[in-house]
Amino acid sequence: MIEAKQKILIVEDDLDVADMLHAYFQVQGYDVFTVNWGEDGVRACQTSQPDLIILDIRLPDIDGFEVARRLRSTRKTQNIPIIFLTEKREKVDQLDGLAIGADDYITKPFDVQELRLRIRNSLRRAGQDSLTNPITGIPDGRLVDERLHECATKPGWAMLLIALENLDAFREAYGFVASDDVLRAVSLMIQNAIHDIGATEDFLGHIDATDFTLISSPTRVVDLQEHIRTRLEQSLDYFYPIKDREQPAMKGKHLAVRMGVLLAEDVNVNSVEQLKVALLRKKR
């Protein structure tokens, strides 16, 4: 499996510095893109989701501090590592940058080798954090891909897809805090059901934000499916205020669970991507 390049966004209005950094880090194996205005930097983060941002403070429109504040206040971008690269040398500026949530602060002129090492370290720390989902604490990303890769190369496994549906509609109605509480509670109920069956050696991970996969054995997977389904379906209504549980307007957009079983003998796959596609088809 080819590993995707890590993406670096450079927000820098000095075109010479921006071009130099772009060329240097592209040679280092990163996927690099550059913008010269603060507003463009905010938009680029929302659309392209970089793995790390190199951010100047003095920009033609909004300054780097405001860019960082907006990124830290938005759920989609709040955990992207930010390295300030600036001519501002005052201690108060450094403290302001770190207080906003920047991961590092480097003053110009700078040593590009030092910057390279600091970027590497920031990405490494971010990668370690992203091994588990920040809301549920359940394995995510690379940890899940590693287990799926094992399954793609050996027989005898069974996977259970557990898909939580209509969480976006719930979030629009009741807010991020309430939807995070739902996702967290659902993950705990799934884990408790696994323990009830005595399948503690099985692996539970996120396929995406609201879809889980449980890697088990063909002898246990049906019992797990029924036990988890019973637990979840009995509980989903209780996440709504009493006045909203029976409203006709919620029909079709009510929280729901869809599940499906995928057996090794039923598919012919040789990659993680093919296995994910086969698994996600089970909720159709």
Topology summary:
Layout: E1 7-11, H1 15-27, E2 31-35, H2 38-48, E3 52-55, H3 64-72, E4 82-86, H4 91-100, E5 104-107, H5 112-129, H6 142-152, E6 158-165, H7 167-174, H8 176-197, E7 203-206, E8 211-216, H9 221-233, E9 256-263, H10 272-280
Parallel strand pairs: 1-2, 1-3, 3-4, 4-5
Antiparallel strand pairs: 6-8, 6-9, 7-8
Strand/helix succession: EHEHEHEHEHHEHHEEHEH
What would the principal axes of the Cα set say about the shape?
Answer: globular
For CATH, the homologous superfamily of the largest domain is named as Reverse transcriptase/Diguanylate cyclase domain
CATH class of the largest domain: Alpha Beta
Distance between the termini: 27 Å
Biggest beta sheet summary: 5 strands, parallel
CATH domain fold name of the largest domain: Alpha-Beta Plaits
User: In order across it, which strands form the biggest sheet?
Assistant: 2-1-3-4-5
Structural class: alpha/beta
Unreliable residue runs: none
